[in-house]
Write a structure and sequence with these properties.
The structure is a single chain. The chain is an alpha+beta fold. It has one domain (about 10-125): Peptidase M41 (Methane Monooxygenase Hydroxylase, Chain G, domain 1). It is built from four helices and two strands, in the order αββααα. It is globular.
Length: about 120
């Protein structure tokens, strides 16, 4: 179900960061703080966490930002955007700790599965 009124960029970024925070707490990882800053390039945000998690949980936490956006917008598509490129790059780094040379298809499947795992957690909240 699509959202009836459009979200502002601020609201969308906050939902992105809330996705990271919620999933981190789900896995027992401490959320130290969330911050946002706006400059001439637009909004920038960060969720600072501390704790241990498995490689799979770390991937899910990283993809939870995009899942937070999808959940807020009322859709289920895995649609990376410019604002999620850093999260995707970090999730790829995590994947490479257990699978050093994934093919493009393997990497995409792993990222997509982490996204859907995060989305499921958010929808169950």
């Amino acid at each position: 179900m699509e959202r009836a009124t459009p979200m502002t960029q601020f609201e969308l970024v906050m939902m992105h960061e809330a996705g990271h925070a919620y999933v981190a707490q789900h896995y027992g990882v401490t959320v130290n703080y969330m911050e946002m800053d706006e400059d001439e390039d637009g909004l920038a945000a960060l969720t600072n966490v501390e704790g241990t998690a498995t490689w799979k949980e770390r991937m899910i936490m990283l993809m939870a930002g995009l899942a937070g956006e999808a959940h807020a917008l009322g859709h289920e598509e895995y649609e990376p955007n410019e604002g999620t490129l850093n999260d995707i790059a970090m999730a790829m780094d995590v994947l490479k700790t257990v699978h050093p040379n994934p093919t493009a298809d393997e990497a995409n499947v792993a990222l997509e599965m982490a996204f859907y795992d995060a989305l499921l957690l958010l929808r169950q909240a």
